[in-house]
Every structure is written in structure tokens, then in C-alpha cells.
Amino acid sequence: MQTPDKIVLEHAGALGDFFLAWPVFLSVLRHFPGIPAHFAVRPSLAGYLSPLATPCPPEIRRGLDARFQGNGWPDVLQNVLVVRPGLAARPPGVQAPQFLFLHGVVPGSAASPRDLYKDALARCGIAFAADYRETFQALFGRPGPHGDTVLLFPGAGHADKGWPLARFEALASLLTRNGLRPVFVLGPAELERGVAPLAGETLAPASVEALSAALRAARCVIGPDCGPLHLAGLHGVAGVALFGPTAPRQWGPQGLAIVTADLPCSPCVGVTSGEFAAACPRPLPCLAGIAVDTVWEQAQEVLALG
Fold this sequence. Notes:
The protein contains 11 helices and 11 strands. The chain has helices at residues 15-31, 58-66, 113-123, 132-140, 165-177, 188-193, 208-217, 227-235, 248-251, 285-288, 292-305, and strands at 6-10, 37-40, 54-55, 80-86, 99-103, 149-152, 181-185, 201-203, 220-224, 239-243, 257-260. It has a 6-stranded parallel sheet, with helices on both faces.
């Protein structure tokens, strides 16, 4: 691959997708040491690229927007490598060789985005940064539990990926009876949907950095296939991830234990950006079938290792 004059690290996906893509950015910048790099991501996630790059200057940002206007690759982006890890769909109309779009999902395959990104980088002659978790922790912090807090994540970006709230409440009672401090973490989606326990302590982090601090201070995290658990995995925080319609091999957070209901029909979907499992009741049996005692047993193992 030709050495560019500048690099733009671009991402437009959700929280979990961004953290799955973070190793790509580290790998590309290591491959091109000393090349000026900028980022174009959601403002809430900019802090996780600021040690590696700087915000896009206005003229480059305008060039990124102009790509979709049908006038070809903008002059301001000549010899600028734009790196965009995505999922299945490449943005239409952008075919320039300077646009490195990396597919994180292949239809019909349960390969993880991490593996797909690694393979795509290799085809470009770029070595994957195998130490990305260690580097992430050096930049953004390692686990430092305070007390016996266990963070519970009752929701996910897609409502059908969440474990039933009543199960979480029963788990919280078990944790309390065993001397632990359960705290329900409510993100924007949960607050909008009104997903909150009837009783118990709650936390609504005001930023991703505040979420990060809460994760690193916890002894353990428990939740469904959701973005915060991917951030916990990058930080090296212990935890339990509850999977139903999605594949743990594809979407499992690194370093976390996995619990499923082990139904033969699960997993049934690769990307949960739309409707799926239309014939199934809600909550989905693959999640409702996960017993509280099963999660508690797995949590005990995780806590004993922590």
C-alpha cells in the first residue's frame, strides 16, 4: 500500500462496534509511523482516539462529506487514506482506492469482526496489533476494583437482546444476600425505553469516560450482548455476557465468560440493526431460558478469579 500524506480514522457505528474496530486504528497507525492522522467519529467517542490522532480539520471534514455527492473523490482527500471499519454495508458511491472500508460482517458467516478486520488488514500488508488490549489499558486504564460492586446492564442497543428485567432483579437479590453490591447501569436506550428496576441502586453515566471509570472500579460486570461489555473486555474487567439471538463466537466480548440457554435455534441473526426472529415470543426464549441460578454460578466463578 502506498504511503499516504495523511490518514483519517473514520467510524459511524454504535459503541460496541467502535470498540471492536479500535484495534484497526492502532494497527494502521503503527504501519504508517509519523504520518499525520485525524479522526472523524462520534464526539462521545473522540477521547478514545485522541492519544493516537487529532480531530479532522474543517477542510478534510468537508471533503469527507463531499464523497457522497457523486462528484468523485474530492481533491482535498488526494493521497489521504480514509480508514473506515464497518459492518456489512459499504457506503454507496465511494469506490476510490484511498477509501479503505473493512467489512466486519460477512453474510452467512459467524466470524468475528476482529478476525475479519485482521484478515482484511493482512490483505493490505498491514500487521494486526496483537497487543491491542494491553495498549488500550495502558492508555485508558486497567481494572482497579473498589469494594464489592457488580454492575448489571439490563438493556442493549436492540431491545430484543436484553435478559428479562425480572431475572436481573432476582440476580441482584442474590448478589445482595451474598455481600455484594449490585448496581444497575442505565444507558440512553434504557432511559428512553423506561427499562429500570423497581428497587435497587442505579447509575446513569454521563459520558463514555464515566462509564469506563465505573467499569474499571467494579469487581464484575453482567449483561447481554451490548457495547459496554466490549469496553469492559478492552479494559480487562471480569464479567459474564448473556447471549441469545446472536453468536458468542462472533460478538462475544473478549475475556468475559459466556452464558447461553443452549437452544438449537440460537443464534439466529448476525446483525441486529433491524427486526429479527419474528415468529418468536418476547422476551426471546433463547434469553428467557437462561436461569438466574446459572448466571449466579458463573458469576461466582468469575468473582473467585478476580
